[in-house]
Specification:
This protein is mostly beta strands. It is built from 3 helices and 19 strands. Strands 16-17-12-11-10-19-18 form a 7-stranded mixed β-sheet. Strands 6-7-9-8 form a 4-stranded antiparallel β-sheet. Strand 13 and strand 14 form a beta hairpin.
Length: 265
């Protein structure tokens, strides 16, 4: 008996044609591509940050070769932000099948797992992966969509390719008037931030109040409130604005990831 054959216009790969495993449409049925997609483009990639996660073959997963840099960059940034503690399990990335909507409905479209551009994390956390929320902004920065928008929060899928993607979170060494300051300073997605709790290391400043989305800072000249950026338990404040409030100007060497601040003339 002839297997069902479907066509789908994928936003990244164009029109593809596939057949199902069984002779009728079944939810999540395995598929085989007939035209429009080369499964050989899905290759092994080693994600160092997943080596300790069960069922990942020591961190080796299958992913589309064009999305590998995005995947690796996202996981490196997650590590550099101290967010790996929010990843407990991985249910894999590459599996050629039809979509399985969380509503239980039948879909005749191929899942993005079929193309090797999706990954499922914390599937067994009893809330469909909701515990991955702290890492979602990192994946989104690297061209992924978070499945929470369609009630599948374990799921992250590439919606745009970034061919020369690279990690965007780096530690920065800071000094003030030539003296090293042990504050936790990071370059995050192109902007400079300081850990809120370390603002007190900047001479003349004290943290007056820390809310969920803002921090109040006191100085001899007065007080000011600054918005904060949060990743899980990491609370960051915009460093250039903080330094300006303290009467300091900064010079940042992006290649060396060093920053020196000094008094305004």
């Amino acid at each position: 008996m002839t297997m069902p054959i479907g066509t789908y216009n994928h936003p990244l790969f164009g029109v593809v044609k596939f057949k199902t495993k069984h002779n009728d449409w079944r939810r999540g049925d395995p598929i085989t591509f007939i035209d429009g997609f080369n499964s050989a483009d899905v290759v092994n990639v080693t994600v160092p940050q997943l080596k300790h996660i069960p069922n990942t073959n020591n961190g080796v997963i299958k992913f589309h070769k064009r999305g590998q840099k995005q995947l690796l960059a996202a996981f490196e940034d997650i590590e550099n932000l101290g967010l790996l503690k929010h990843i407990d399990s991985c249910a894999g990335a590459f599996y050629q099948r039809l979509k399985k909507p969380t509503s239980g409905a039948l879909s005749k479209e191929p899942s993005n797992h079929s193309f090797g551009i999706a990954i499922d994390l914390n599937a067994d956390d009893k809330c469909l992966g909701c515990t991955t929320a702290p890492i979602a902004p990192v994946f989104e920065h690297h061209g992924f969509r978070w499945g929470k928008s369609f009630n599948d929060p374990m799921h992250y899928e590439i919606i745009k390719f970034i061919d020369n993607d690279a990690p965007s979170v780096k530690d920065v060494t800071m000094s003030i008037s030539g003296a090293a300051v042990a504050a936790d300073v990071k370059s995050v997605f192109g902007d400079l931030f300081v850990k809120v709790a370390d603002i007190k290391m900047i001479p003349g400043l004290q943290v007056a109040d820390m809310g969920p989305n803002a921090v109040a800072v006191d100085s001899p000249a007065g007080s000011e409130v600054f918005p904060t950026l949060q990743f899980g338990g990491l609370n960051l404040a915009p460093l250039p604005q903080i330094l300006g409030f303290a009467g300091l100007k900064l010079a940042f060497d992006n290649s060396k990831k060093t920053l020196d601040a000094d008094r305004l003339a």
